[in-house]
Amino acid sequence: MLPVPGLFEYRLPVTLITGFLGSGKTTLLNHLMRHLRDRRAAVFVNEFGAIDIDSQILVTVDEDLVALSNGCICCQIRDDFLMAFRRVLAYNQMQTSAGKRGLDAIFLETSGVADPYPLMLTFRATELWSLTRLDAILTVVDAETFTAEYFQSQAALAQIQHGDIILLNKTDLVDDEQLRSVETEIQRFKPQARILPMTYGQVPLSSVLDVDLYSEDMSTDSPSGVQHLQNDGFVAVPFESDRPFSLRKFQKFLDYQLPSEVFRAKGVLWFDESPHRHLFQLSGKRSQLQDEAWQDPPRNQLVCIGRNLDEEELQHQLHQCLAP
Ligand SMILES: Nc1nc2c(ncn2[C@@H]2O[C@H](COP(=O)(O)OP(=O)(O)OP(=O)(O)O)[C@@H](O)[C@H]2O)c(=O)[nH]1
């Protein structure tokens, strides 16, 4: 049970959702939002890259969603984040003072290449610490790509190190042996880790919300004194167009031209041959297209994320996929 807002010393619980690129953070967030029932949560999403795709995938009421996509909330846009957060808290205060329904929780999804530690320090070093309560840091881990990708990324390791609960996602893609070996690896790295296996972010809400697990013994670091990981060497290449792709050309691009260094891609795609809006996701070697109806005028928005990408060449290749 969540405590009743308005009680003395009630502080809004904040759940920080972290995890590597494509591990399933937004999928988890969608699961949480869908099962909140009569509770209400505000959502902050920090995207890596300039185009905000996540807010188009998320199930939320628009006014409860804050998308922060032009930099990392732990450094480049820390002030914007704080301002947006303060605005949400002030609005919530106004609503509850007027006897209206307020928020029960705040969810904050970090970008896949972010170390959550500087963000934790931001909470610690500002008035957010007394106005809210960091309930838990949930770290989503992709059980399938764990060994290959995680130990090459400082950010991914920091996410596991600081996680209060490690949500081992995509269990449908691995066998029992792989699952056990990932659990063993995580426990070797973090002996006290609480690990919960899941598929498509489906966990009982009671096991991840209002769990009061955040207990990080913070050092005396200040946010500005902590080194930011410089996106861990990853870059995000954006592509936008008001013209549709040719499905055939885009498929050929995926099959034969997509650089192997692209680890993650996501976008909202428009194909000449289709009346639908297509949600495109690529994570590791897997990709999927989901059909939906257009609510806005059709256009293409895509972000490709990886290391050592040739931005100009990639954009040129995508441009070549446009229908004549
Ligand atoms: N097979 C399988 N796919 C999953 C599962 N969970 C998520 N996915 C897929 O993995 C892809 C990435 O999921 P997201 O939830 O967008 O991942 P994310 O961590 O938010 O990604 P970034 O914000 O880009 O770092 C999507 O195509 C999801 O549908 C799962 O349990 N099993």
TrEMBL record:
A Pfam family (short name) is cobW
SMART domains, A to Z: CobW_C
Q: Give UniProt keywords alphabetically.
A: Chaperone, Hydrolase, Nucleotide-binding
MF terms per GO, please?
hydrolase activity; nucleotide binding
Catalytic reaction annotation: GTP + H2O = GDP + phosphate + H(+)
Task: Give residue ranges for domain CobW C-terminal.
Answer: 234-322
Q: Which family does it belong to?
A: Belongs to the SIMIBI class G3E GTPase family. ZNG1 subfamily.
**What protein name does the entry list?**
Cobalamin synthesis protein/P47K
Q: Which organism is it from?
A: Acaryochloris marina (strain MBIC 11017)
